[in-house]
Amino acid sequence: MGGIKKCIQETKIYKDSEKLSKNIWAKRASLVIQLVISYADIALDLVNSVQLFFDGEVAYGTIMFLLVVLPSTMTWAFLRANGSAPWSDLPVVMFQLAPLREFRDSWNKGKGSEGYIWYIAAEGLCEAPLSGLFTAYILTFGEDQSITFYISFIWSTISMAKAAVNIVKAIQYAAEKMQKEA
User: Fold this and answer.
1) I need a labelling partner for 153 at 20 to 30 A (CA). Which of 76, 123, 126, 145 fits?
2) Cβ–Cβ contacts within 10 Å for residue 67, how many?
3) What is the gyration radius of the CA atoms in the chain, in angstroms?
4) How far apart are CA 54 and CA 92, in angstroms?
5) CA 81 to CA 68: how far, in whole Å?
6) Whole-angstrom distance, CA of residue 98 vs CA of residue 110
7) Number of Cα atoms under 13 Å in the Cβ half of residue 35
8) DSSP code of residue 23
9) Average pLDDT in the chain
10) Is the pLDDT at 130 greater than 70, yes or no?
11) pLDDT band of 135, cuts 50, 70, 90
């Protein structure tokens, strides 16, 4: 296994990615990409929720809306229980502004804050799979839907993949924080 790792580390792509990982603008671009993926998924799900309400599918519209709001609220509750989020953050979370605020706080370092990583991960690992599954259900068993439902399903998959990467980053962040405290 060590030979494969060495071969990979000697490639030009690996060396270039090492340089980029140290560049502040590349780090900031990564933060922007994560934010755009998350907010695009949220926006598509909200558009679909409104579409369902307009089509008279109130129950489906309500479920879709709750699938957008509840994961970030649960993330806030988790962070609150661990002393990382005050009560005053709850309205920010309910209006889906927490990732944007955490993005602002992360910009100078080019590295996601603890809250940023958790909110983005929650969006991709809680909201995206559930809303993606629900969207697939509607597409399979519902009437013909608009193109936003198909785009939303694909975008949820992209969001889930990005969130899996963020979980690794969250674990690394926690390990670094524990080392600093020790």
Assistant:
1) 76
2) 21
3) 19
4) 27
5) 21
6) 17
7) 24
8) -
9) 83
10) yes
11) very high
DSSP notation for 127-179: IHHHHHHHHHHHHHHSS---HHHHHHHHHHHHHHHHHHHHHHHHHHHHHHHHH
Q: Which residue type occupies 178?
A: M
Q: Is the pLDDT of residue 164 over 70?
A: yes
User: Which amino acid appears at position 12 of this protein?
Assistant: K
Q: Global pTM?
A: 0.74
Query: Looking at the predicted structure, is the pLDDT value of residue 57 above 60?
Result: yes
Q: Report residue 152 as tokens.
A: 């939303």
In the chain, the amino acid numbered 45 is D
d(CA 49, CA 100): 22
Instruction: For residue 105, give both structure tokens.
Output: 């706080």
In 3D space, the residue among 8, 181, 24 whose CA is nearest the CA of residue 111 turns out to be: 24
